[in-house]
């Protein structure tokens, strides 16, 4: 529907779009509503300036909490590890040279005597000279002089005669410089014939003084 004709005095021209519904709010109500909206806006600005803005500025101006400076963590230095001492080189064991044992002296023949006699013969003195040479060269040696007799005669006489024969050889060695402590005379009488058996043909060999080095 289209309205035509001149506008009515005191009435604002209707600027609504064609087909829009007519507003029922009067101009006075509109004015009052506009004033209220302005008052609300101004109130918001006042609240913003008086309350919110100072609090915001104060919060920003608040000094930051002083945090304690991080303490330096002291890490103890590792204790030195005690190393075992180096092995002491052991010098090779040097074997002590062992002196070879001296060879035993050469066996000497027996001193032989006449029957019922204790006198040294020339041959006996020659043998005793060899004994002297050995004792002089080998101070560690001693000589054992063992006197014997044949099976003839009483036992008591034979024991005395065998002792006299051993001591006759001892006296000769002492006269030629041998220490008596290195000479050991001993008598056996007729108790130890050669071979352990009495043989008549061996009586000459049984009237003897045996020489043994020790």
Chart the SSEs and their pairings.
Blueprint (H helix, E strand, L loop, with lengths): L26 H35 L49 E2 L9 H16 L5 E5 L7 H21 L7 E5 L15 H4 L1 E6 L1
Parallel strand pairs: 2-3
Antiparallel strand pairs: 1-4, 2-4
Describe this structure in words.
- With 214 residues, the chain is α+β, with helices and mostly antiparallel strands.
- It has a four-stranded mixed beta sheet with strand order 1-4-2-3.
- It has helices spanning 27-61, 122-137, 155-175, 203-206; strands at 111-112, 143-147, 183-187, 208-213.
- 36% of the residues lie in helices and 8% in strands.
- The longest helix has 35 residues, at 27-61.
- Among the domains are: 27-58; 111-213, OmpA-like domain (60s Ribosomal Protein L30, Chain: A), CATH 3.30.1330.60.
- The chain has four helices and four strands; from the N terminus they run αβαβαβαβ.
In what range is the share of β-strand residues?
A: 5-15%
Main pleated sheet: 4 strands, mixed
- Considering the protein shown, what is the CATH homologous superfamily of the domain at 111-213? OmpA-like domain
The whole-angstrom Rg is 77 Å
Q: Enumerate the spans where pLDDT stays under 50 for 5 or more consecutive residues.
A: 1-14
CATH topology of the domain at 111-213: 60s Ribosomal Protein L30, Chain: A
User: What is the CATH C-level name of the domain at 111-213?
Assistant: Alpha Beta
Largest sheet, spatial ordering of strands:
1-4-2-3
Number of helices: 4
The SSE string, one letter per element, is: HEHEHEHE
What is the first-to-last residue Cα distance? Answer: 175 Å
Level-2 CATH architecture of the domain at 111-213? 2-Layer Sandwich
Please state the overall shape, judged from the principal axes of the Cα atoms. rod-shaped
Global structural class: alpha+beta
Number of strands: 4
């Amino acid at each position: 529907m289209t309205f035509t004709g001149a506008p009515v005095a005191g009435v604002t021209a209707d600027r609504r779009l064609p087909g829009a519904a007519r507003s029922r709010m009067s101009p006075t109500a509109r004015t009052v509503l506009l004033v209220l909206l302005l008052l609300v806006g101004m109130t918001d600005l006042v609240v913003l300036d008086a309350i919110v803005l100072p609090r915001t500025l104060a919060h920003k101006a608040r000094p930051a909490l002083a945090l304690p400076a991080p303490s330096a963590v002291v890490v103890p230095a590792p204790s030195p590890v005690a190393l075992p001492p180096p092995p002491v080189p052991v010098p090779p064991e040097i074997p002590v040279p062992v002196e070879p044992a001296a060879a035993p002296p050469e066996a000497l023949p027996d001193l032989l005597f006449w029957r019922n006699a204790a006198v040294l013969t020339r041959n006996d003195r020659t043998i005793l000279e060899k004994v002297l040479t050995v004792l002089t060269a080998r101070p560690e040696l001693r000589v054992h002089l063992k006197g014997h007799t044949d099976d003839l005669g009483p036992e008591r006489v034979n024991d005395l005669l065998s002792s006299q024969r051993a001591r006759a050889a001892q006296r000769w060695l002492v006269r030629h410089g041998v220490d008596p402590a290195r000479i050991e005379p001993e008598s056996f009488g007729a108790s130890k014939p050669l071979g352990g058996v009495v043989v008549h043909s061996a009586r000459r060999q049984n009237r003897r003084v045996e020489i043994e080095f020790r």
